[in-house]
Specification:
The protein is mostly helical. The protein contains 11 helices and no strands. It is elongated, with a radius of gyration of 22 Å.
Length: about 240
């Protein structure tokens, strides 16, 4: 059984868009494992790999991933990327093997998800140096929501020079506050732009994340009736309204 999710967020950085748009989510059940694997096997451009041993090894890697219940579309995509970049067969095999290992770790940390997009995002976070314990913590904070965008933003921030401790803490704060995926994505774009303009990565992350948290706090106060949704108008010559 296949589940395909398409999310249109044109303002996302290319790497985040690829997480949301470029991958196809695949759920492999034991009863349909052989059929699904055959379809993935046919989709992979194995014949473009001229090394027989490497080609066989890659087939085995993808078959093993399917047997574990992992979505294989990210692995097939990795093979295609290697071929497009004219990488050597050994490099394609090694890259596919490392991705399979990261996806296995991500699957354990993000359980019970089987989303190709979410596992690919988790694998990218692990590659960026984010520990599996952080992925487990994020899953506990968002047990019923997809972590694709928060994980993608975390990876982007670390790759952009934000220290892992600050990036992790601020992403965690936003998860606790109930930030939306769109807010995560917008913040990530703002941080990248700030860094490009010369602001220190950690300072940019602190500034933008605090801005989102301030907005979320205000929205919560409005919902709880603690502050009006819009401030009362001030008439010329009249004293300001009492608080």
């Amino acid at each position: 059984m296949r589940m395909t999710t398409m999310v249109h967020l044109p303002t996302l950085p290319r790497t985040l868009r690829s997480l949301l748009v470029g991958a196809v989510g695949v759920l492999i059940l034991d009863a349909a494992a052989t059929t699904t694997l055959a379809a993935q096997d046919a989709a992979a451009p194995y014949e473009a790999i001229d090394d027989v041993d490497a080609r066989a090894a890659i087939r085995t890697l993808i078959a093993d991933a399917a047997a574990k219940g992992l979505p294989t579309s990210p692995l097939v995509t990795k093979v295609r990327e290697g071929i497009a970049k004219r990488a050597t067969p050994d490099r394609i095999r090694n890259a596919t093997s490392l991705l399979a290992e990261r996806m296995t770790k991500a699957s354990a940390a993000l359980a019970p998800t089987r989303s190709a997009e979410e596992l690919a995002a988790g694998a990218d976070a692990l590659q960026a140096g984010v520990p599996a314990s952080t992925l487990r913590d994020m899953r506990k904070l968002w047990p019923g929501k997809p972590l694709t965008v928060p994980l993608g933003v975390l990876s982007e921030m670390v790759a952009s020079g934000v220290s892992q401790s600050i990036a992790t803490r601020r992403v965690r704060d936003l998860l606790l506050k109930g930030a939306t995926s769109a807010q995560f994505a917008s913040m990530g774009t703002d941080v990248r732009n700030d860094i490009a303009s010369g602001l220190a990565p950690d300072a940019a992350m602190e500034l933008r994340s605090k801005g989102v948290i301030s907005l979320l706090n205000y929205q919560a106060q409005v919902l709880n009736g603690m502050v009006p949704a819009t401030p009362a108008p001030i008439r010329p010559g009249a004293p300001p309204p009492k608080k």
